[in-house]
Amino acid sequence: MLSEADVIWMDGALVPWADARVHVLTHGLHYGTGVLEGTRVYPTPDGPSVFRLDDHLDRLVTSARIVGFTVPYSAAQLRAATLELVAANGHDACYVRHLVYLGYGSMGIDTRSCPVNVSIASWEGAPHVGGRDEGARLMVSSWRRNDPNVVPPAAKATGPYLNSVLARAEANAAGYDEAVLLSSTGQVSECSTENVVVVRGGALTTPSPSAGVLEGITLDTVRRLAADLGLPFRHGDVVRSDLYAADEVFLCGTAAEIMPVRSVDDREIGAPGPITRKLRDALAEAVHGRDTRHRDWLTAVA
Ligand code: PMP
Fold first, then answer.
1. What cofactor does this chain's UniProt record say it requires (predicted)?
2. Ligand 1 within 6 A of 135 CB?
3. Residue 179 and residue 37 in one domain
């Protein structure tokens, strides 16, 4: 269950949580016409701070551009609205969900006369991710990842998440924590809501964007933390057997943070490995503002 907060930002105003409603003929509800972001706030020595807020807002605007929406607010306005919301809700640590969606006003597939609505919500905690601490058990899904020429995975858009929902539900029903989706050409792409990183011989590889991958902000954080630690990091082709043969595999995402993988298709990888643990510790230092090299990733709420 969500832990309810006091207010939600809707189209320029803070409204009480219970009043943050939309009409049943909202376009985005019928056709999945929306783009979204999930961002986190952590306690830091400077008080509650949003992790990589500007990068999340940049990606929101880019997602909107990919799907052809014009966001009716500037990134600066969305930034100010986010900080106002988190301060109003008095959170010390929370998850923030930005949503830009086609609203109520016309029905049918034609989007030209639809209003573009924007909401920002925050609540304590983060979406549940199974296997987060002890290591996730993955299965390769029978569902393929959205193909970039069918619906672009580079946009964090609402409708395409049905692909993730199908894969995650299949994995959970079969007793696994999470699903790995292969691209239409058979390469590993990503999980339902996390990027995948394979560690072998001390080097990190993550699937190339051409495999149908969201450019994860946590993944970019991992890339930079790996550089701090002198660990090679590259994008490349990853196939299913690379997961089975890996020394370590971990997932990364805003909700999952860095999540070790215990097994893939019942091939044991084992307890969280040394590189996964080092990066997990480095991420914890960065998000909590204890690593002064990366203070620019944090925006203090007040
Ligand atoms: N891939 C998908 C499909 C996702 O939904 C997410 C979560 N936003 C990620 C990767 C990880 O992205 P981020 O690190 O920016 O949360």
1. pyridoxal 5'-phosphate
2. no
3. no
- Rounded to the nearest angstrom, the distance between the alpha carbon of 195 and the centre of ligand 1 is 6
Nearest C-alpha to atom 12 of ligand 1 is from which residue?
216
CB-ligand 1 contact for 37 (6 Å cutoff): no
CA end-to-end span of the chain = 28
> Are residues 249 and 161 both part of a single domain?
yes
Give the position, in ligand 1's atom list, of the atom nearest the Cα of 219. 14
Secondary structure (H, E, C), 135-192:
CEEEEEEEEECCCCCCCCCCCCECCCHHHHHHHHHHHHHCCCCEEEEECCCCCEEEEC
Q: How many distinct helices (H) and strands (E) make up the chain?
A: 7, 16
Domain closes at, from 95, 123, 151: 123
Domain limits at 31?
7-123
Main-chain phi, psi angles of 54, to 5 degrees: -65, -35
Q: Which of 6, 9, 14, 83 is closest to 49 using CA atoms?
A: 83
In a domain? residue 299: no
Q: Is 278 a catalytic residue?
A: no
Catalytic residue among 52, 91, 156, 223: 156
SS3 of residue 87 by DSSP: helix
Among 123, 147, 162, the domain-final residue is: 123
CATH number reported for the structural domain that contains residue 248 in this entry:
3.20.10.10
For residues 156 and 90, membership in a common domain is answered with no
pLDDT in tens, 168-210: 999 999 999 999 999 999 999 999 999 999 999 999 999 999 9
CA distance 203 to 193: 23
Q: Is the reported ipTM for this assembly greater than 0.95?
A: yes
Specify the number of domains making up the chain.
Answer: 2
Do residues 231 and 185 share a domain?
yes
Best of 56, 96, 254, 279 to mutate for ligand 1, by most ligand atoms within 8 A of CB?
254
